[in-house]
From TrEMBL:
Name under which the protein is recorded: Crossover junction endodeoxyribonuclease RuvC
Any one Gene Ontology cellular component term annotated for this protein: Holliday junction resolvase complex
Gene that produces this protein: ruvC
Quaternary context: Homodimer which binds Holliday junction (HJ) DNA. The HJ becomes 2-fold symmetrical on binding to RuvC with unstacked arms; it has a different conformation from HJ DNA in complex with RuvA. In the full resolvosome a probable DNA-RuvA(4)-RuvB(12)-RuvC(2) complex forms which resolves the HJ.
Keywords noted in UniProt: Cytoplasm, DNA damage, DNA recombination, DNA repair, DNA-binding, Endonuclease, Hydrolase, Magnesium, Metal-binding, Nuclease
Entries under InterPro entries matching the protein: RNaseH-like_sf, RNaseH_sf, X-over_junc_endoDNase_Mg_BS, X-over_junc_endoDNase_RuvC
The protein's enzyme class: hydrolase
Domain of life (superkingdom): Bacteria
Binding site for Mg(2+) 1: 9, 143
GO molecular function: crossover junction DNA endonuclease activity; DNA binding; magnesium ion binding
List of residues binding Mg(2+) 2: 70
Names of required cofactors: Mg(2+)
Organism: Amycolatopsis vastitatis
Amino acid sequence: MRVRVLGVDPGLTRCGLGVVDGGKGRAVRCVAVDVVRTPADADLAHRLLAVSDEVERWMDKYKPAAVAVERVFAQHNVRTAMGTAQAGGVVALAAARRGLPVVFHTPSEVKAAVSGSGRADKAQVTAMVMRLLNLEVAPKPADAADALALAICHLWREPMRARLAEAEARAAEMARTHKARLAAAAKQAKQVKNPGAAR
């Protein structure tokens, strides 16, 4: 069974988009990759609208099962961080309208998933993306390669995350059941010890 993921490296000046199909095991295939650009001197609302329109067009065209977005991390340039967060919010909203799950991955998570090291640089990530997807030409700019890396990261990490969540839910249910049994046993022991208390 194939799973399709839209990876988004959010940004106002450049917003990377990458669609990847995941198959059995770790097999991945590039479906589409591009970058949405908006002029820096344009009004913020119109820039966000341009990003939203293109992201929604991609969602309708490629019909992903999930959307993976890069989580905003601390940056020295507050303005850049704000723009990135706003673009990410627009993407999440577009996905929510279509009932698509959205997962935010940190840059280190993506690097670790794709290259094996959370400290890999952009050149290493791009090289690994090319290798994993059998691409002859490097996606440019780096935002495009990052979007593909996000999709790959999600395809590889999400099944494990889902299994962990399921295991945690089962453990919590077992703990609740055990606690209820202990309480019932304590109550029964108290009644045996003091039969008049139950009357």
